[in-house]
From TrEMBL:
SUPFAM superfamilies: Glyceraldehyde-3-phosphate dehydrogenase-like, C-terminal domain, NAD(P)-binding Rossmann-fold domains. This is Gfo/Idh/MocA family oxidoreductase. GO terms for molecular function: nucleotide binding; oxidoreductase activity. The keyword Oxidoreductase applies.
């Protein structure tokens, strides 16, 4: 586990986790190892789920209504880990209550809602970060550090292959509600792929085209293929496939002088002129390391620092998902900046 980190003379930041879903334990454990932070409360409409998460943080209070948690002044900051459409109202209510906000990805289900969250936090004078965990996972940070060093020259192409499982019944029902989730596999899993591909590509997208499939009788897309052209000329290809014979989570970055592959299961390797070397060997703690680093980033933003994931980047991810839906519906390429977001 990562060592506790110090955040100066600031008193311990009392953190409230709103939403006790699958990644809740990672958020709770992150708070437990960071000096200057404590997981003070867990809120979920399912009290049993809230209690399971709170059990990992002795002394944490349990709520079933986030408004009650905010009114009781039980926390100084919140992590919004709820279904996507709830990010907007909960983040705004937290900001209006004077609480700092870390909202899980995707930031919101529309570009307008992203802007409303950012405006509410700015107006209230509270910190805001978006939980794009890919920026903190060890296999990705090792790859990004090598590319940033300049050893491989400029990035030319990015290929991102990701498997998932969007068969109805394999995940909570809200994932299959376009109103609540914003969409299907692309809004959920595709957001991770777009986030990290843009990060490695080094620029915003100028155009995107997409094809999607709705299988298993699902009301939302279960699979999707995206092709992007970035403003710096880098090309990106992303595939999200549901329930394939083999699982995949592979990011390949083609540079002038070599190729980097990052995979949380296999680690990170680079191949240069016929020779391969390992940049990061995976460990059982890698996911937790990422969540701990993400929370540490949130704490330093509260202290006045700059977020590792710019808000404009998080907003752009949402913009691109929506543009991909337009492309899939019309069979045309979406040109960014020419179509209302």
């Amino acid at each position: 586990m990562p060592e506790a980190q110090d955040h100066g003379t600031r008193r311990s930041m009392r953190i409230g986790l709103i939403g006790a879903g699958a990644v809740a334990p990672f958020h709770v454990r992150a708070a437990s190892v960071l000096a200057g932070a404590e997981l003070a409360a867990v809120c979920d409409i399912d009290e049993s789920a809230a209690r399971r998460a709170a059990h990992l943080a002795p002394g944490a209070r349990v709520f079933t209504d986030h408004r009650r948690m905010l009114e009781d002044d039980a926390v100084d900051a919140v992590i919004v880990n709820t279904p996507h459409a709830l990010h907007l109202p909960i983040a705004i209510e937290a900001a209006e209550a004077g609480k700092h906000v870390l909202v899980e990805k995707p930031m919101a289900t529309s570009v307008e809602d992203c802007d409303r969250i950012a405006a509410a936090c700015a107006s209230a004078g509270v910190a805001l970060t978006v939980g794009h965990i890919q920026h903190f996972l060890p296999d990705k940070t090792a790859a990004h550090a090598l590319i940033a060093s300049g050893e491989l020259g400029a990035v030319q192409l990015v290929r991102d292959n990701r498997s998932t499982d969007y068969r109805p019944g394999t995940r909570s029902p809200w994932f299959f509600s376009r109103e609540v989730a914003g969409g299907g596999a692309l809004f959920n899993i595709g957001a991770h792929c777009l986030d990290r591909s843009l990060w490695f590509g080094g620029a915003r997208a100028s155009e995107i085209s997409a094809s999607v499939a709705n299988r298993f009788g699902s009301p939302v897309e279960t699979d999707g293929v995206l092709r992007l052209r970035l403003e710096n000329g880098v090309g990106i290809a992303i595939a999200v496939v549901s329930d394939p014979p083999t699982r995949s989570d592979s990011l390949t970055v083609v540079c002038e002088q070599g190729v980097v592959e990052a995979d949380p299961r296999a680690g990170t390797t680079v191949r240069i002129d016929g020779r391969t070397r390992v940049l990061h060997a995976p460990t059982e703690h890698d996911i937790q390391t990422g969540f701990t680093a993400q929370l540490a980033d949130f704490l330093q933003v509260i202290d006045g620092g700059t977020p590792a994931v710019p808000l404009e980047h998080a907003r752009h991810v949402v913009e691109l998902i929506l543009a991909s839906y337009r492309s899939a519906e019309t069979g045309t390429t979406s040109i960014l900046g020419r179509v209302p977001a």
